Amino acid sequence: MTSDCRQEKRPAWKAPNGDGEVLLEPPLDEVGQVVASNRLLEWPVADRLVGISPLELKETARRELVEAACDHSRQYRDVPASLDPDLPLIVSGHQPELVHPGVWFKHFVLHAVAERCGGIGVHLSIDNDTAKRTSILVPTGTLDRPALTTVAYDRRTATVPYEERRVIDGSAWSTFGERVSQAIESLVPEPLIAEFWPRVLNQATPKVGEALASARHQLEGEWGLETLETPISRVCRGKAFAWFVAMMLADFEGLGKAYNRALADYRRTHRLKSARHPAPDLEHDDEASELPLWVWSASEPIRRRCYVSRSADLLVLTDRRGWEHRLSHRGKAATSQLAEAIAELEGRGIRLRPRALTTTLFTRWVAADLFIHGIGGAAYDEVTDRIARYWWGAEAPCLMVATGTFYLPVPVPEVLPEDLRATKQRLRDLEFHPELFVSPTSEEARRWIEQKREWIARELPRGSRRERHAKITEANARLQPWVEDLRRETLERLEQLRDAWRRRQILASREYAFCLFPCELMAKLAQAAQIDRPVLEERCRGIVERPPCR
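Above: the chain sequence. Below: its structure as tokens.
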């Protein structure tokens, strides 16, 4: 295997630079071995559960995840009547946003890995995160004068979780596809948005994130990707997640210590000084301890931190903003009674949802046989590995890292930062070292050059160096007429480079939403994920090859 996926400090993975280049770790040829190894790992938490075994809990989590994904996916695309949850379960996850192709690539890898392992691929739409953006950046204008414009698909409002976020501005929502197409048509004549946005509008949901994710997943199905998808909110309504939260509540003291110790180790290993990076410590005082959970209500969908305290045979949940709920419990092991009481909160409109680290803690250890991360998530899950080690004494299952770089298919100026630096340095040399560029044909010029060199070489006592500085400055100024033409040419060159660099920054960004690309992008992503499907060949037939964008 190319690297140890359980090492203390993971590699500093970076997104590739070249168009169409991808990062896959481990490589697809080795992923079957990784999945098989993960399936053999034990989860040593038997002493933390009363009324259910670790194996039964994991089986429940897998069954509920597959059932939720099947139920959700068949609302808008064909799904097999039944799937065996004992098959290798490959999972990825991301917020339901208009992501760039490097993130979308994970969905293609999800299909590829599941197919190679004879398993099931499920993408989790992380709808417990807040909907921070309601617009995308779109390049517009011409190749000679490109510009950036912001196109909104909805009105901005208070940041509520995607699970609760509904469309507010129907006009912006319905016309988004048309406005994006008009903005980018001079650069990309047939963007994928024209095929994608009608599917968004046809989704039978008023929720922003769910409509975006379902339309994207529907499009993937038409291109032959045999994966499933479900919002994580549906998973959180299941029995397995209730048991997982019960474990957290029953031993919140041990969890808090493990969580904060893992963060401290990560900061020390990576020499981070910020107490909020990669996540803030869980708070603890005499009154309550913070849990790595969000809590909110259906009537007031603003995420709040969740706290717990112990009082005799009661656990008291609170958001410290007025909400409080009491649960009967004693001891440090989760029980059926506690898990059932947590599950009942959903029916009362109370949402208990995992934070980022807790999401993968549940998914990787309880449900999935392999989790596919992007670069950022994989780096931060180093913390999750440590939490599991300190809290459960559990070995970490290996994960997979997948990302790629894909640029818009437009010509891009060939200019590098070194070109700008060299030209700026040349301007500086013309000002402070003009003698390097002056041909000594003029007697006056030779005289000023010789005078400057004499002053540079002269040994001077302290207090006399200001005079030398003044004489050298004067010589430089006197020599400027002999380099004026070269200076003017260099300034013109610098302006040309700056303009080319500005155009390159706009045209050669890997961060543009996937829907701005032509449909050829899907063929590129499939090819990069080593997917060879007849339906892809059918879809790709007739696509005209475009010139390389770099």
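The chain has two domains: 1-275+353-410+509-550, 417-507.
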